[in-house]
Amino acid sequence: MKITHSLLKKNQLAWSISASLALFIYATSAFAQPTPSAPKAGNVPAAKADASDLAAKLTNPVADLISVPFQYNYDANIGLDKKGTVNSLVVQPVIPVKLNSSWNYILRPVVTIEQSNNVNGFSGSGVGPVLIETFFSPSNTGDFIWGVGPIVSTPSLSGNNFGTAQTGVGVSAVGLVMKKPWTAGLLAYNTWDAGGNSAYGTANNLFYQPFVSYVTPTAWTFGINTQSTFNWDARRAENPINATVSKIVKFGELPVSLSVGARYYASSVPGGPSGWGGRASITFLFPR
Questions:
Q1: pLDDT tens sequence across 87-117
Q2: CB count, 10 Å around CB of 244?
Q3: Are 85 and 58 in contact (CB under 8 A)?
Q4: Nearest one of 237, 170, 167, 243 to 211, comparing CA atoms
Q5: Are 153 and 129 a contacting pair, CB within 8 Å?
Q6: What is the pTM of this model?
């Protein structure tokens, strides 16, 4: 049974990555073709920015660009017995608000919907803690871009199997250098417990995400990052490394980014994911 279960998890991972890759290739080839159309009066939003410029903006977490990503993740070897798997959908719209000619306010709510399979004997679906990141960022900058602001995390919306029962408050910050075709930077935040039951984990977390991206003139983006979380109470860190490739295409006049990739857990907390996982996403872009 142990061998069979291990093979099943490997097959799930292979199917997940293969399906994501097939969808990515199909959608890229199907929608990347230019569609002849008659000239239209007025401004067409998708024509305001070149596809490569849009791809570059997507590498900037505080860009003046409305985007709505839907990101699928597959993680394995979860639970104290390492027999569990989790499929998750992360929805993270980015909403920039122009405060004045010098400052932007960036709102980034993060909602994670999870399906757990045999994690310490539990199987079910639910919504984890909601994270609300905010950044005040100068609108007129050179190669170096930065932002800082408050952050709030809610307790898990679906009970103790999907995250901490605590509320967290803290500070988020980002700094990056953009020199085409490269972007390199660090996004980080720290939250502190603001109340709630600590029996199912605490909200005292440090998150840090160094990232590097390369954008080609044809709007392909190759990126690598970590999305590491260190819990101050457990004194343990979870360090997944993500490598992705993405492409800007169009659905009619709407620019869309399609992405696929793999992830590997360099380290994890007890009962957390380990080994290889998969990732795929679709991001809808709304240039101003």
A1: 999 999 999 999 999 999 999 999 999 999 9
A2: 19
A3: no
A4: 243
A5: yes
A6: 0.82
